[in-house]
Amino acid sequence: MSVPQPVRSPRRRAPRNTLNPDRILDAAIALLDRDGAEAFTMRALAEELGVATMAIYSHFRNKDEISDAVAQRLLDGIELPCGGALAPRCELREVCLGVHRLFTEHPSALQLLTSRPLRGDDAIGVIDRMLALLRRSGLSAKDAVRAQVTLMQYIVGSALWSIRRSRALCEEGARERVRAKFDALSPERYPTLTSLAPELMCAQEDAVAQFEWGLDHLLCGLLAGQGPPED
Fold this sequence. Notes:
- The chain is an all-alpha fold.
- The protein has two domains: 21-60, Orthogonal Bundle (Arc Repressor Mutant, subunit A); 79-222, Tetracycline Repressor, domain 2 (Orthogonal Bundle).
- Helices cover 66% and strands 0% of the residues.
- It contains twelve helices and no strands.
- The protein has helices at 21-35, 42-49, 53-56, 63-76, 88-105, 107-115, 121-136, 141-169, 174-183, 191-195, 197-205, 207-222.
- Helix 5 (88-105) packs antiparallel against helix 7.
- The chain is flat and about 65 Å long.
- The mean pLDDT is 84.
């Protein structure tokens, strides 16, 4: 049986001469975060803004240009520590936390930055900073590159997992069904899982703490026993 979709109230038309690039980008971010990249069209954006579609073209040439501007706006919001204020390892940790926070708070950033070529200086700047910190931490050029890719893979994968789990658990009764499934497991067939079920549920519930735990152990492994940087 199909699930009835919620009926949205019609949006009020925006007052004349109030449209500007900032308003368009704000609406685009809200639309992308709420409905996803698949639903992001110029028509949907115009409805979000309460304007005619052609009005948007007075400020942006096309959807790709808006997507690039959205990615740049979101990257501008990453909270990064002041360079040199912390030890390289601590600073690298804060950079990773900032990127992860961006992805989890704005799923649109995760979709845009992982599905489109990097166009903005900020995205390239974050990568450059991570590489520099890894080199300052003592990794060779080759190992620094490998470590940076590994960290980004962990950040993206963790954020994607957290976003999807959060959306799934938003459904009514979802958490109760998960707990009931664990409670119904046979201790004879799954002795370790059933004995650790409370700890597993706790780890899954606190996504931020889980990410930080994994990040700290990942950094510990990547930076263990490094020698001086190679020329």
